[in-house]
Amino acid sequence: MAEHFTNEEIVARGKQAVMNTYGRLPLALVRGEGSWVWDADEKQYLDFVTGLAVNSLGYSHPAVTAAITQAAHQIVHASNLYWIPNQVRLAEKLTAHSFAAKVFFCNSGAEANEAAIKLARKQAKQNYGEDKYRIVSLSHSFHGRTLAALTATGQTKYQAGYEPLPEGFLYAQLNDIASLEQCVGEQTAAVIIEPIQGEGGVNPASPEFLQAAREVCDRYGALLVFDEVQCGMGRTGKLFAYEWSGVEPDLMTLAKALGGGVPIGALLAAEKAASTFQPGDHASTFGGNPLATAAGNAVIDEMLRPGFLRHVQEMSAVLRAGLDDLAKKYFLDGRVRGEGLILGLPVGDKGPQVVQECQESGLLINCVGGQVLRFLPPLNVSKQEIQLALTLLEQAFLKVIV
Ligand SMILES: *Cc1c(COP(=O)(O)O)cnc(C)c1O
After folding, report:
1. Which pLDDT score is estimated for 90?
2. How many domains, in total, are found in the chain?
3. Cβ(140)–Cβ(174) under 8 Å?
4. If you average pLDDT over residues 241-267, what whole number do you get?
5. Residue 79 is part of a domain; what is its CATH number?
6. What is the number of the ligand 1 atom nearest to the C-alpha of 228?
7. Could you tell me the residue range of the domain that residue 100 belongs to?
8. Bridge partners, residue 226, by sequence
């Protein structure tokens, strides 16, 4: 039996021993089942954060648990000096269901974006010469915390203190085609876009903007990169968010939900870019290891089952309608935005208070940019669970907003 600690004990000890990089809520999550988690004091929560869009199949999903268990018995890790059957299988499934021809595996979203940036620069220099290296991203974007991914992240609050940042990054405005046209030119190696900005406040890119990005990239021989680390893997009600727009990227990055909670990231590349990396050009010790890709296979198999994505779309309609009603009833200015089960509701500066009220009544949600409530329930959430979440949210509004 593991030693048992209370929330309070864990928080106190954590403050001593763990670096203070997160503004954490004072509770420790110790087990989960479906859409529900329990903290160290046995308090139960309905989880609409899902480990930040990671636990998309909910907690303790039997298929994921079985896959991890089997891999643990069979082989946890093998080097990429050898072929890894689970990795090959997952790459086949990802390419069969997307624009991509080949996949590179790593361990996180930031690493997947680093790989995308490196690949884009390498192929630009190879095909067009040394001066083609610029990366255009968007303001309010989020691409991760490693130095290049951080530089692509168009939010100065994350960059302050880490200068000098890598050179050659420019920022356009989301859904502003003119500003994109201004940033992209002969020197552009890649344009990187989240089809729905997650950390930036649940801001969807319009289909017209994505189409314009496709055109301007083609005009200048730049690669179009979609960062689907948060909005990919079924989150929007399609396997990949770009499917809603019909605009295909050249590169796409995945992470978060891909491993059902086991760390994994992936860079997917279309045929024309897929052979840029040759032996020695890029690598990751753990990338695509047998355990992580066992989990990845279980996750994608679940998501490809008939009816899974339709369920996401149906639950989205229920949650969206409920949030729209609350927005009207409580005279909120902003409208619900997002797609599928990544939805945002602007509530002004009361966001953090609403989050705290919800937590006290047993609902986990979070707030991006201090202003927008973000809802990321498990994709297999039930209608009853959504209705319960809406009830708890309304109770919080009654306390905080009225
Ligand atoms: C979370 C996130 C990342 C970074 O992923 P990590 O696994 O934390 O490195 C990158 N891009 C987007 C869109 C994200 O939401």
Report:
1. 98
2. 2
3. yes
4. 98
5. 3.40.640.10
6. 13
7. 75-303
8. 193, 252
